[in-house]
Amino acid sequence: MRRIAEHKRKIWKAMEHTIGMRIPLFLAFLILTLVPLLVQVRFTSGYFYQSHVEERMAEAQNRCLILANKIRSSDYINVLLSGNPNPALDAELSTTADLMNGRIVLVDDSFKILKDTFGLSRGKTLVVSDVLKAFDGETSSYLNQKKKYFYVAQPIQAKSTDAAPIDSDVAAGNGKNTAGVQGVLLLMASTENSALLQEKIVQKTGFLQLVMFCFILIADLLAAACLLKPFRRLQQQLDMVAEGNLDQDIDVKTYRETRDISEAVMQTIRKLKNLDRSRQEFVSNVSHELKTPLTSIRVLADSLMGMESAPAELYQEFMQDISAEIDREGKIIDDLLTLVKMDKSSPDLNIAQTSINGLLEQILKRMTPIAKRRNIEITYESKREVSADVDEVKLSLALSNLVENAIKYNREEGKVWVTLDADHKFFYVKVEDNGVGIPKEFQERVFERFYRVDKARSRETGGTGLGLAITKNIILLHQGAIRLKSEEGKGATFTVRIPLNYIP
Predict the structure, then answer these.
(1) What is the spatial distance between Cα 128 and Cα 490, in angstroms, rounded to a whole number?
(2) Closest-CA residue to 448 (of 282, 325, 299)
(3) Of 35, 74, 306, 415, which has the most beta carbons under 10 Å away?
(4) Architecture of the 256-340 domain
């Protein structure tokens, strides 16, 4: 059973991928239009049936009232009891029964059937609730929709109405009625004609329904096609983008949905363009950065080879320069490998509870000798003890880059302030210096790879242009953020915010 269920799920998933929007839209339109049409036809036929039956019952009541008055005025019941015929009234009763497609029964005050237009029940006793109500002077009617018939019970008043109400013996059929009602006219009629009329209405409206169905079907197909036309145009433009044409404009603004999709796709295309441009710049910068030390090494090596009798001091100086260029090359390669590792879709993070206070103290301990060589003072302030879920090695690298930059790009006898603070969700590390600062027009690009504000100074300090890019990537991996605030000539402040609890 489990295999069958899995197979069904696979089939359904396959159908989800193959079925387009046209079929659901078409079905939705069809249901929304066809269902009201069917309900309308059903309601209309039912309404006509009910109206026709009510009209026939009203007509039957009127005819029964007219006949009851004629029977009373002609003393028809006593004439029948005396055995004398009344051909004119007999004919009128039969004609009325035929017109109503029914049967007329005349009952006297002893509940005996005096007249039956069918000629089947004459002389028999008829005691039912509606006949009893009629002998009490109440006209009643009843409709049986299941068996498709109705009847009307019409009381026939006697010429003398000074008698007492029907007693129990009369109700049981054992006495004489003296309630002022000498008989009951009972008209029973079939509703088959009304049912046939309903069927004819359904049949006649069936053709109209079929025509309307075809019209609705065509209209639904056209509506679905019109609604999907912008999406097909969007798909065509996206296909061109998929083929590599990033200059293709996605502009389908027929609907709000297609406009939103177009804007989202264009934003994605712009990001792809920027990414492609960044990739090209990155490749160019990597080539340049790796080529520069190699060129210097070649020049130095060629110079040494051209000196047949170079002094040992000069030879040693040249070798020191070559060693420095090799170290620089190694630093660039190490930083590139670090970036490559962090650019993976799911870079490895060794998250553990770490004392941020202790981490900063270790970083500043390593950086103090570098700062002293330039007479730069480092001030550290911890406002509270902070522990957080971080990758200690990677975060140490990121914060070390910030402190090292604050030292390298500072003036002689400058100052660096490092501050640690936290709230209930994040901890904050602020690295501030009073150095040269970063011009406003360059602040957005300082986190780009190989970007240098002052390329000459970066060469002197041994920078690769990758430190801040690595720092930002590490902070982003920790679900944090970094912000730069700087003013040229007054220094720069980098503020790092990282969650206390790492949630993958």
Answers:
(1) 113
(2) 282
(3) 415
(4) Orthogonal Bundle (1.10)
Span 448-459, average pLDDT: 56
Query: Has domain 346-499 been given CATH number 3.30.565.10?
Result: yes
Could you give the C-alpha distances from 206 to 198, 214, 218, in angstroms and in order? 12, 12, 18
Burial class (CB in 10 A: 0-12, 13-18, 19+), 82: exposed
Query: Angle at Cα 80 formed by Cα 75 and Cα 81, nearest 5°?
Result: 100
Strand ranges (E), 57-134: 102-108, 113-116
How big, in percent rounded to 5, are the helix, strand and coil portions of the chain? 60, 15, 25
Q: What's the CA gap between 103 and 115, in Å, rounded?
A: 10
| Separation of alpha carbons 404 and 402, rounded Å | 5
Q: Tell me: the pLDDT tens digits for 141-175?
A: 888 878 778 889 999 988 764 444 434 343 334 43
pLDDT mean across residues, the chain = 76
- Least confident span in 1-10, 110-119, 184-193, 308-317: 1-10
Between residues 32 and 96, which one has the greater pLDDT? 96
Cα–Cα dist 465/477, whole Å: 20
Sketch the domain layout of the chain as residue ranges. Answer: 256-340, 346-499
Measure the CA–CA gap between 229 and 226, rounded to whole angstroms.
5
